[in-house]
Design goal:
124 residues
């Protein structure tokens, strides 16, 4: 066994490099997806359309990032990075505003929070 596993030893250098790139992209995606999903859930309570839009931009930018990195190597990802970073900086802003709005409603229990959420849905 090599340090990369028994299956990658048979790939040759080019195959190993492609596998390594795919693995790096996957791990890079996993580093941020939990934060993005949590922020999308919270932000979506108050700003559903904005959340869907930013989420779609994030998904497209991550796909662009992946394709660029696989085809052109590390330099290929640089075209998508501004869009990925824009969404990763935009979500916390809308999430904090959404949390502030929910906190200003004054719900102190889960039952009250459910009532507030139902009122918000009826108001839209």
């Amino acid at each position: 066994r090599g340090s990369c596993g028994r299956y990658t030893m048979e790939l040759g250098y080019k195959g190993w490099m492609e596998f390594n790139k795919a693995q790096r992209i996957h791990y890079n995606y996993l580093e941020s997806i939990s934060q993005i999903l949590c922020m999308m859930l919270i932000c979506g309570l108050q700003f559903p359309i904005v959340t869907a839009t930013i989420g779609a931009v994030y998904l497209a930018a991550r796909l662009w990032f992946q394709i660029g990195y696989m085809v052109l190597g590390p330099r290929g990802r640089m075209y998508a990075v501004p869009f990925v970073m824009l969404t990763q900086f935009g979500f916390p802003v809308f999430t904090m505003v959404s949390l502030g709005y929910l906190a200003s409603k004054g719900s102190s229990t889960i039952a009250e929070a459910e009532i507030v959420a139902q009122e918000m849905l009826k108001a839209d």
